[in-house]
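Hi R.,

Here's the input for the 6-O-phosphono-beta-D-fructofuranose complex you asked about:
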Amino acid sequence: MRNLAVLTSGGDAPGMNAAIRAVVRTGLSHGMNMWGVCRGYAGLIEGDFRRLGARDVGGIIQRGGTMLGTSRSMEFMTQDGMELAMRRLHGAGIEGLVVIGGNGSQRGAEALHQMGFPVVGIASTIDNDLSGSDVTIGVDTALNVALNAIDNLKVTASSLQRTFLVEVMGRHCGYLALMAGIAGGAEAVVLPEVEFTPENLAVHIIECYDRGKPHVIVVVAEGAKYNAEGLCRYFKEKELIPGHEFRSTVLGYVQRGATPTCADRLLGTQLGVAAVEQLVAGRLGVLVGVHKGETITTPLAEIAGRDKPLDPRFLKMAEMLAK
Ligand code: F6P
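And here is the predicted structure with 6-O-phosphono-beta-D-fructofuranose in place:
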């Protein structure tokens, strides 16, 4: 394999740049010509490639986002789009591709693999909803941003004895909310995966104050049945928490754009190196991820579209410790 390309796709995640850097420099050390595909699959179908040398990926390891740009391309997901992408790759003489991204991006990688193109995926999404890796690139940074915010909110919340509903990212998956809730010492977490009613949550909040708590922090996943603002509105309309004030804070994209933590830089680097090694060894159509600290590979066909359920032990822990 002489020409290898790398692309980032879907939501950007802190640590993607570390992965790009590792892919490029590992490929160069194997004597390959390295290419970056700009703007993910959208750039792939336009043939938007740029040659990358060691210097081109210098000074990026500490930067959030992705130096290549990214996209959520609907066109690529069509048969025509995929065939065009294949023609672009062949036309540029590219013989292998590393896809850095989450669920949707790895479905695209699997489609290219099915069409016979040598592909390896790298598990990267702040949501941590990708099976095939205990943790994905970007999760640690996103959690640390949430924790920073929760710590700060606790200060003002206790000063005024308020309830704060802090909304974190995670459209279909409550992992970030659950872990930020546990590590941030929240009084409750609201997740898409767990049934709840605002009425029960309100009872729980009142009990917290009755037990002498100076504040209540509720971490809400954006994809839960009610988001933070929706819950605030509901509490107000139904007067469910009389005598207590509550506020909502939506963290949103702030979580995605942060400076990558040490853990995310190391994970991006570990997986970037591993992805190229898989391609060199001819182990194609796999996702590289981590399990118990070790690099593992899983066939893309097994992970594409599969859910990654929350660990019930953490759900129990969150409930038990919120006393
Ligand atoms: O990349 C994952 C994610 O950040 C989710 O947490 C969030 O729901 C979604 O992307 C937002 O998507 P977009 O960037 O397209 O608005």
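One thing worth noting: The mean pLDDT is 96.

Cheers,
M.
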